[in-house]
Amino acid sequence: MRIGHLAAATGASARSLRYYEEQGLLASERTAGGQRHYPESAIERVTLVQSLLAAGLSSSTIRDVLPCITEEAIRTPWLAERLRAELTRVEEQISSLHRTRTILSGLVEQYAV
To answer: What is the distance between the alpha carbons of residues 52 and 39, in angstroms, rounded to a whole number?
Structure first.
């Protein structure tokens, strides 16, 4: 399938699909005219990448964990450890945002007219 069809099937922009390819998260073959051609399995792959991005993982982290997620035969405890580390990172960000919110809320009360 061509990039436009994959974009329509997944809701990802063509620009995002090209980015996923640059980052090694998605693969395509080129036609003689240089157009990208994706296998049907690319729909599932893009959906997975989108969910991992939505979970807060960076593209480099996704590149690291993707083989273990997609190929159960090579899955090791490392995957769970890596995902736990990402969860800890996100929880720390949330905690930091709560602190920031508390400070900002105090400033709003202090300077409210």
So the answer is: 21
Beta carbons of 1 and 37 less than 8 angstroms apart = yes
**What's the CA gap between 25 and 46, in Å, rounded?**
8
Phi, psi of 28 (to 5 degrees): -140, 165
pTM for this predicted structure: 0.86
What percent of the chain clears pLDDT 70, i.e. is strictly above it? 100
- Contacts from 100-104 at CB under 8 Å and sequence distance 24+? none
Q: HSE (CB half, 13 Å, CA atoms) of 59?
A: 12
Q: What is the pLDDT of residues 9-38, one digit of tens each?
A: 999 999 999 999 999 999 999 999 999 999
- Cα–Cα distance, 71 to 65 (Å, whole number): 10
